[in-house]
Amino acid sequence: MGILSWILFGLIAGAIAKFILPGRDPGGIIVTIVIGIVGGLLGGWISTRLAGGAGISGFNVMSFVWAVIGSLILLLLYRLIFHRTRA
């Protein structure tokens, strides 16, 4: 699967990750989109490493699942690093 497919998956996966982990995040919608795109790429990279270099090819459910997993990982990391405490 090409990098453009992972970017497209990332846009959708970022929205789903935000739906799964709702809440106010610093940065707004732009940061959510970027996290989704990078998360989709991260998910593709993780799946390729776990498959021993074969990776996921084509548009299928598992590739989308990996994009969502990558987005969730990055969203959680982002919240841990940039969490605002309320006074």
UniProtKB/TrEMBL annotation:
Record field: transmembrane: 27-47, 59-81
Keywords for this protein: Cell membrane, Membrane, Transmembrane, Transmembrane helix
Membrane association type: Multi-pass membrane protein
UniProt subcellular location: Cell membrane
GO cellular component, as recorded: plasma membrane
Main localization category: membrane
Domain of life: Bacteria
Pfam entry (one): Transgly_assoc
Stated family: Belongs to the UPF0410 family.
Protein name: Membrane protein YeaQ/YmgE (Transglycosylase-associated protein family)
